[in-house]
Amino acid sequence: MKQTPYYDVRPIADLRDMLNQSVNLYGDKAAFLIKDPRAPIASRVEALAAEKAADAAEAAAANSAAKSGAKVTAAAADAGSKSPYLAVSYRQYAQDVNALGSYFMSMGFQGKRIAILAESRYEWYVSYLATVNGTGICVPLDKELPQAEIANLLNRSHTDVLIFASSKLKEVNAIRTQITSVSTFICMDQPKVEGDLYFWDVLVQGQAELTAGRKDFLVAPIDTKAMSILLFTSGTTAMSKAVMLSQRNLCINLHAMCQMLYVDPSDIFLSVLPLHHTYECTCGFLCPIYRGATVAVCEGLRHITRNMQESKVTMMLVVPLMMELFYKRIIKSATADPKLAKKFRLGLKISNLLRKIGIDKRRQLFAKVHETFGGSLRLLIAGGAAIDPSVMRGMRDLGIATLQGYGLTECAPILALNRDIEYKDTSAGLPLPGVEVKIIDADENGIGEIVGRGPNVMMGYYENEAATNEAIDPEGYFHTGDLGFIDQDGFIIITGRKKNVIIAKNGKNIFPEEIEFKLMQHDLIAECLISGHPSEDGDSIVRAEIFPNEEKVREVLGDVALDSEAVRAEMDKIIRSVNHGMVNYKYIREFELRPIEFEKTTTKKIKRQYSK
After folding, report:
1. Helix (H) or strand (E) segment spanning residue 153
2. CA-based radius of gyration for the chain
3. What does the pLDDT look like over 226-235, one tens digit per residue?
4. What is the pLDDT of residue 97?
5. pLDDT class for 1, splitting at 50, 70, 90?
6. Residues 243-267: what's their mean pLDDT?
7. Which of 33, 43, 129, 481 shows the smallest number of beta carbons within 10 Å?
């Protein structure tokens, strides 16, 4: 297949250079759309004016505080989702980053490890670049972790400064005596513990440093090959590994992905995934800032639809579970009534016929669907796990482009990506420019481990040389642990995870993901896991653990328990049907129903259990 030329993108030396260039190019354009009226300082007056519930006295006090850079009142801080989105310009964002960075430098934090423990919010974005753009090493933490694990990661990373949200105050208070390396605590909200610093107070102090002419942060040297970010993997099996990334890793990844996928300054990203994860951080934060687009901060999963409409989102990063949920809800709504269903199917037929002759009427024919998503959504990008190709085709038929990519934290994170003009729904994508991907130890079907080499590959695992040497071979290839093949057009097809593979007695490989995919095509199944179990004759038999779709069970079988005989009978039918379409050694021989959903990571991956 002849490859279409890459998009032109501007070179960047480091993340500071990226931000400075974007300020020069897009100065007063919105970098962020936020709901929190505390941030940034310059937007507080607008926030209070928009909040009708605040009385005149509180509004006047907050207005005065905004001008002086002091604290805002609790009433102003509670405006939240009642307020419209507020625009924070590129110029204002850079000013806040430089102010916080200058404070860090004035306190002697250069070279220190600064951890961020919070939900997605403006202070998170400021803290990240204020750390890596001249101060020290950023340690983004998963806010959903239990307190013992938070303490463990802070100690393992030798964190010096912890920036946290008040939503995590309980956990922070519980572990203060355990995290001996942390000497400074900065709360994004009004501190409730004596000795903790207030984020907006220290930012104002940093601005005073800049006003006084101190440029330590602005001119601090940046070693693009040194560790700038320390990220912990999700650790779904054993102890999580600490991935060391450099600014070179990130900048190369940004440059390459934007060559493959067009991002316009007019685009608006709605940030719905956790920022501590490199997928959202690199692709949903740094990428739009690099390209001059806007990031709208989602208030939470239950607010996605409203936030999409308010922000007029054009692009969004999602995990497969979210995209599949969007699609199922669309189809359910469109086919709930027989007349509507007939009209919907006719619309699809007409649309597909028109597209064959170069006429695209999808947005007009499915206007209500687009209105649900804000009216401007043009692209959904899925990552983190495989997605049903029919879902992507279905969304595309409705006029919303969908793509999937492939990445790992160790690759900063993108290794391969489907392009907006060249894609295969069954693939993980094409390797990024400058990245080499190959298959090693292939079997008779050409399936082997996927390995990649390039400037985006991590520096290694922190304080774990053995794991680093195991992951990166002497030729510099990172061993992903994923299995697959590369087709004739260069697309990477993932078939499963190396450590998930079940080896049958005949030596054949059984990929659990393949069977799970077949099971998940049935509406009665919400979640499932396939694993291998030893049988009496020494073979490995395939076993399924299934969490039924409660809503569908009630619809089909009435008010019955999820582990009832009636549900078992229906699942048995499904399994027989799935087995019928597979070779004998892949047959599901046993299954178990579970009454609750599987435990998942914060990126919605089911946590698999492995024997040590």
Report:
1. helix 147-156
2. 25
3. 999 999 986 5
4. 98
5. low
6. 97
7. 481
State the burial class of residue 214 (Cβ atoms within 10 Å of its Cβ: 0-12, 13-18, 19+). middle
Q: What percent of the chain has pLDDT over 70?
A: 90
Rounded Cα–Cα distance for residues 158 and 154 (Å): 6
Residue linked to tokens 């040497």:
469
Decide: helix, strand or coil at residue 490: coil
Give CA–CA dist 455/435, Å, rounded: 7
Instruction: State the DSSP string of 523-557.
Output: TTEEEEEEEEEE-TTS-EEEEEEEEE-HHHHHHHH
Rounded mean pLDDT, 451-477: 97
- Give this prediction's pTM: 0.84
Over residues 463-467, the mean pLDDT reads: 95
Tell me the average pLDDT across 191-198. Answer: 96
What's the token pair of residue 606?
A: 């089911």
DSSP secondary structure letters along 45-79: HHHHHH-TTS-HHHHHHHHHHHHHT-PPPHHHHTT
| Helix or strand (DSSP H, E) at 391 | helix 389-397
Contact between 504 and 587 under an 8 Å Cβ cutoff? The reply is: no
Cα 145 to Cα 173, 274, 478, 601: the distances in Å are 15, 12, 27, 9
User: Long-range contacts of range 578-581, CB-CB < 8 Å, 24 or more positions apart?
Assistant: 578/515, 578/518, 578/519, 581/518
Tokens of 600: 């998942």
Nearest to 79 by CA among 34, 43, 32, 35: 35
Contact 132, 231 (CB under 8 A): no
488, amino acid identity: Q
Distance CA 417, CA 429 (A): 4
Map residue 481 onto helix, strand or coil: strand
Read off φ and ψ for residue 90, nearest 5 degrees: -60, -40
Residue 56 has pLDDT above 60, yes or no: no
- Alpha-carbon distance values, 598 to 19, 232, 519, 526 (Å): 41, 22, 16, 10
β-pair type (113-117, 137-140): parallel
Residue with the bigger pLDDT between 225 and 37: it is 225
- Copy the structure tokens of residue 469: 């040497």
232 bridge partner residues: 242
- Cα separation, 585 vs 532, in Å, equals 12
Q: In angstroms, how far is CA 466 from the centroid of its own chain?
A: 28
Separation CA 492–CA 513 (nearest Å):
16
List the structure tokens of 403: 């793509």
- pLDDT per position as a tens digit, 559-604: 999 989 999 999 999 999 999 999 898 999 999 999 999 988 766 7
Sign of CA dihedral 56, 60, 61, 65: positive
Mean pLDDT of 351-376: 95
Please list the residues that pair with 450 across neighbouring strands.
439
- Going along the chain from its start, the domains and CATH numbers come out as 25-80+89-246 (3.40.50.980), 501-593 (3.30.300.30)
